[in-house]
């Protein structure tokens, strides 16, 4: 994901750290209200990656309500899925988590 964001030109590189944090919070709130929006999820990811590339962390404590709303939306979506669809989703999530761990290890080395 970080490589893709960098290849796309680091859309948020010109913003101050404060602006990136504020936009990340705004994007997270928007995504929590429309969980099925890949565009909103992508915006959150890009802003978060910009923070990580700067060696900064997102303001997690300020995002508790939105993160809770995202968790609730994910639970609702999971409960509405068939057992096979849930199993496929969990396999995809495990694969994504492993990829993120590899990316994190790679970024720590650089």
Overview of this protein structure:
The structure is a single chain. With about 110 residues, the protein is mainly α. The chain has two domains: about 80 residues, no CATH class; about 30 residues. Helices cover about 75% and strands about 0% of the residues. The protein contains five helices and no strands. The chain starts with a helix and ends with a helix.
Shape: globular
- Secondary-structure element series: HHHHH
Contiguous uncertain segments of 5+ residues:
none
Could you tell me the strand content as a percent range? under 5%
Return Rg in Å. 15 Å
- Helix proportion: over 70%
Mean pLDDT: 89
Number of strands: 0
Number of spatially distinct domains: 2
Largest sheet: none
Q: Span from first to last CA?
A: 16 Å
- Total DSSP helices: 5
Structural class of the helices, strands and pairings? mainly alpha
List the helices and strands and how they pair.
Blueprint: H1 2-7, H2 17-33, H3 38-53, H4 64-79, H5 83-109
Keywords:
mainly alpha, 110 residues, 0% strand
In short:
The protein has five helices and no strands. It is mostly helical and 110 residues long.
